[in-house]
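Reopening this ticket.

The earlier resolution said the output was attached, but the attachment link was broken on my side. Pasting everything inline this time so it's all in one place.
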Amino acid sequence: MKKWILAVVLPVMTLAACSTGGAGDPAQVVERYLEAKVKADAQTVRSLLCSEMEADLERESMTFASVTDVKLEGMVCVRDDDTNTVRCQGKIVATYGTEKTDFPLVAYRVVQEDGEWKWCGETQ
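Inline output:
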């Protein structure tokens, strides 16, 4: 019995450990993308961008690089059924000089590339 459990559970655990996090829930990919964007983490943004958006890497990863006190507030993202749309609630709050600006989170398109979910821009 123990051998059977190990034979079934061990490969699953190994696959989970090797995953980059993009294969599972597309809503989690969008959340990771937004977190990386507010941190100006270009490497993570690059790993989560779809190939169609690769030309926009600098813009996407540097959007909030020159502002202070940038943070996500109330972020909750959920995939629309089995579609390629993830809808998010919450906002990005950033301080430009002395003025705080809110950027509401919206709906985002996701696509699968090489078995991984990727962020592919805003959508309706």
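Reporter confirms the inline version is readable. Residues 23-123 form a domain with the Nuclear Transport Factor 2; Chain: A, fold (CATH 3.10.450.100). The helical segments are 2-18, 26-38, 42-48, 57-62.
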